[in-house]
Specification:
163 residues, alpha/beta, Rossmann fold, 28% strand, binds adenosine-5'-triphosphate, binds magnesium ion
Length: 163
């Protein structure tokens, strides 16, 4: 193995969203594809579309629409019951870095849960089956969305999304 080669294989996809609806649709498509547990880390500035993507994922997982997906305010993590359980964490207000145990999600990772984390740069732990999605605001309607998959299952899933 070459020196700088990552230990875990990676796959990357770059997408452009031209409206809030497109980001919502992308989330829904992702949610519909899911059948196993996965951790999805979301990274990007305020208002770049992270929560909107989570709303789409919730739709794709058949979370009943009466559940309003908003960022958790009084707790770090909200749980929604869909086809698979959806855990939505928002680490924005945390002043220090945390790991999965700190935010009470360590045991959840063994289940078929979908864990989506906003401001995931505050999560220090590296785990294998993950997507990391970076959002960049290009203008008031356009967002660049870059998805990086780590680990075999996550990579397979990303290949499916690209089809
Ligand atoms: N292409 C786009 N994709 C997503 N959101 C968009 C897009 N164009 C405009 N917007 C607007 O940007 C805002 C995104 O808000 P959202 O709450 O999803 O951001 P966020 O990344 O979760 O922010 P925060 O860091 O504050 O939690 C919404 O008001 C949405 O209408
Ligand atoms: Mg948000």
């Amino acid at each position: 193995m070459r020196k700088n080669e990552p230990m875990i294989s990676e796959q990357k996809a770059e997408l452009l969203s031209e409206s809030p609806e497109e980001t919502l649709d992308l989330g829904e498509r992702i949610g519909r594809m899911l059948s196993d547990g996965i951790v999805i880390r979301l990274i990007g500035d305020l208002g770049s579309g992270k929560t909107l993507l989570v709303k789409g994922i919730a739709r794709g997982l058949d979370v009943p629409s009466q559940y309003l997906i908003t960022s958790p305010t009084f707790t770090l993590v909200n749980e929604y019951k869909g086809r698979q359980p959806l855990y939505h964490a928002d680490l924005y207000r945390l002043s220090t870095a945390v790991d999965f145990e700190d935010i009470g999600l360590l045991d959840i990772l063994c289940e078929d849960a979908v864990v989506v984390i906003e401001w995931a740069e505050k999560l220090t732990e590296d785990i294998e089956n993950t997507w990391t999605i970076h959002f960049a605001t290009i203008d008031d309607q356009k967002r660049q969305i870059v998805i990086k998959a780590q680990g075999d299952n996550a990579i397979e899933l990303l290949k499916k999304l690209e089809k």
